[in-house]
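Fold it.
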Amino acid sequence: MPSFHALVYGRLIDALVDARKSAKLTQEEVGRRIGSRQTFVSKFELGERRLDVAEFIKVSRAIGADPHELIRQAENSD
């Protein structure tokens, strides 16, 4: 069974992906906004690479999402 940390992190990435899609942004557009390639976005969305806190904030803001709200959602999901 995954740890609490793994569950919350997975929910956090799911919330980030949902926010990106709701903003109607492609991975390529997000990559451009943060100065990275589309593959960087794909890798963290697929769980092949983890985001650190600073990267999470940068990506959240690039897609127009409130990073604090995404964290609250991830913590409170059941």
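The helical segments are 4-22, 27-34, 38-45, 53-62, 67-76.
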